[in-house]
Every structure is written in structure tokens, then in C-alpha cells.
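Provenance and format

Records in this collection were gathered into a single text stream. Each protein contributes a sequence line and a C-alpha cell line. The two records reproduced below are adjacent in the stream.
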Amino acid sequence: MRKIKSLTKMTLSQCLDECQRMWWFVSRSNLAVPKAKHEWCKKNGYNIKNSCFFCQFAVNRREENYCIECAGKQIEPGWSCFEPEFHYALYPKKFYKEVKRLNKLHKQKEKNNEKT
């Protein structure tokens, strides 16, 4: 996977792919989640909002109250990274699985749109 050249022009697909890559690392790391996210971003040359591709995607679309534009909400409108069953800071392995699920769902929607 290539690094995203322009974070301000990042597509939803790019956001999801990079997010999944980052969370694969975070879910296997012994570091605290914020530290693991920061380390992955640093190692991969990213300086993104909250060390989070979903946040960066949202900020690109809206500066204030940016959570409204979260990448997860673009796929499922009620989605939140703070959900008790997969809260990103508490359950990194579950959150990784959730990001994979969202990415798969998005790719399926894209594929269906290509057919129509």
C-alpha cells in the first residue's frame, strides 16, 4: 500500500484502507492505544488529527464538530468509535475487526454501484 499523497484529498476508500493497516498494528501492539497509533503514524510518515484516519477524513470535510463527518458515519450513519462493544481505546482487537467490517461493507457498496 502506498502512502496517501494528499491527506486533504483523501478518499473514503483510502481512509479505510490506511485505518485498517494502522489498526492491524495497534491491535497487536503492547503499547497503550494512543501511543501505538502515534508510533504507527510516525513510522509511516503521517501527521493526522488524533492519529486517526477517520478523524482526519472528517476534519477535511468540516473543521468544527467534525465527528459528524466521521468516515465510519459515511458507511453507517449511527456509527461511533466510542461504542461500548468495540470502543477504540478499550478494545483495540475488537476495533480492528470493526474497521475491517466497515471497509468490507464499503468495498461491497462500491462494487454494487459499479454494476448499476
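Adjacent record:
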Amino acid sequence: MTPEMHRNAKHLVTNSEHFEKDCDYFFCQLNEHFDWFKLLDIFRQLAVLALAFALGWKNFLALSNLIFFLSNQNFNDAANEIEAKGYSYLADVMRTGEIKFAESK
């Protein structure tokens, strides 16, 4: 994810200063600690970022199976781990590499 993509993704969700600081923190942590994070496509990066944000850094780091699967680009097993934590939408993004938008009626 380029810095420009990162900035744009943050502004899609909210312009909250606190959110931006938190998002920056988790994005930097993921980039600094995991080489595999840089290799993910943008949607999978966003899914991992959202999960780390939702769980908190310490709890995210405790997901050793998920981290192992991601480091090996085993997205199906990674998605199963995410789903087991109750984040079905993020699991779908991890599994497919796509974000599905709701269709308007």
C-alpha cells in the first residue's frame, strides 16, 4: 500500500484525528514487524489493518496461527482464523482479495 493509498483509505472512513493517529500507528507497526504485510494486495492489507485495529496490537500479536498463515500467503486458512474471531466480513476480504460493496436497490 502506497502512502497515498493509505491516506485515501483513512479519509474514506473518517476524518477523525484520533482515528488517523490510530490507523497510522497500526499501519506502521504492521509494516515494521511483518515483511509479508508489504506483499499483500491493498484489500488484504486493509483487512489486516482493520483486524489489528479492532483487536488491539497485543491481541493481534497473539494470533500466531494467523500470522503464520499470512507469512505463507495461505489466505484461506488465514480467513478461517479471522472468521473464528467473529470477523466474517474481514475473512471474506482475506479469502477473496476483494471488498464487496452492498448493491443499491
